[in-house]
């Protein structure tokens, strides 16, 4: 009699097992596949080294998120505009270092922010006493030519007055930040717009010159991961948010950011000790 007493209980346990197993197989885990992470050359946040490996602040953080989640990731170097098209089509799963906009939210999930960004105007060190602006309108009243990389977000003031800058011949577009710095040294613009860490880093590392930021702050934004709506689910987004929170709480994100800030400051300090005149470093084409 005791055997029959427990048969219904055993039968219920047996019937429950397949359902639990199916739930595990179908659960939207963040790493059911290798995650394709797009990036473009934007030091010190991301760039491709001579060996073809991704390097940079955002790259280090993305690797840390992947380790926390147990993810396999594949970094793919692509131009900025193309990377967004690939994310929209699901050919890339994640983009790093993104500012949230309404347009981008149409095709991407945005993670919790993991760092901040500040945009400012920069001039060559030797011109810091000649060029000063207190407000955006001073660009027009003083007829200052503004060098702007063609892809990116540069604040509401720039967005709203881009057409006016073009009409008054004060806007000089460039393919990227590196080329913008080169053009600044050639005298093709008076100022350059960019991220407060990236622009001085690019100038010192790639062009061996020192840039000085003007006091006007153009914009301040939280920076996020973008996950493709075509290839990544809201559940996967939540997993990445958990990783960001965990690494924020344990200090790993702060440690990585501080490391790259110190490296950037060190490179700029080295530039301030260079005594070679600018004309010996550059020859106009």
From TrEMBL:
Coiled coil: none annotated. Pfam families: SBP_bac_3. Keywords: Signal. Residues 1-21 form the signal peptide. Residues 34-264 form the Solute-binding protein family 3/N-terminal domain. Belongs to the bacterial solute-binding protein 3 family. This is Extracellular solute-binding protein, family 3. It comes from Shewanella baltica (strain OS155 / ATCC BAA-1091).
């Amino acid at each position: 009699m005791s055997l029959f007493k427990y048969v219904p209980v055993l039968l219920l346990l047996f019937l429950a097992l397949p359902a639990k197993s199916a739930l595990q197989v179908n659960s939207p885990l963040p790493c059911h596949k290798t995650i394709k992470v797009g990036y473009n050359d934007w030091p010190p946040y991301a760039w491709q080294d001579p060996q073809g490996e991704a390097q940079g602040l955002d790259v280090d953080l993305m690797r840390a998120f992947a380790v926390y989640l147990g993810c396999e990731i594949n970094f793919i170097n692509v131009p900025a505009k193309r990377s967004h098209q690939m994310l929209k089509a699901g050919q890339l799963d994640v983009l790093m270092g993104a500012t949230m906009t309404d347009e981008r939210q149409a095709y991407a999930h945005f993670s919790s922010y993991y760092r901040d960004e500040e945009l400012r105007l920069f001039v060559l060190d030797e011109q810091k006493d000649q060029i000063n602006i207190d407000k955006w309108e001073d660009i027009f009243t003083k007829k200052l030519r503004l060098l702007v990389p063609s892809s990116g977000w540069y604040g509401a003031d720039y967005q709203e007055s881009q057409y006016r800058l073009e009409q008054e011949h004060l806007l000089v577009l460039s393919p990227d930040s590196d080329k913008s710095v080169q053009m600044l040294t050639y005298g093709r613009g008076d100022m350059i717009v960019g991220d407060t860490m990236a622009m001085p880093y690019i100038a010192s590392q790639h062009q061996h010159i020192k840039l000085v930021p003007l006091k006007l702050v153009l914009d301040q934004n939280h920076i996020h991961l973008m996950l493709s709506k075509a290839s990544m689910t809201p559940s996967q987004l939540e997993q990445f948010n958990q990783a960001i929170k965990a690494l924020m709480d344990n200090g790993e994100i702060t440690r990585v950011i501080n490391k790259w800030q110190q490296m950037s400051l060190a490179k700029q300090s080295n530039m301030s000790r260079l005594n070679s005149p600018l004309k010996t470093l550059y020859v106009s084409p």
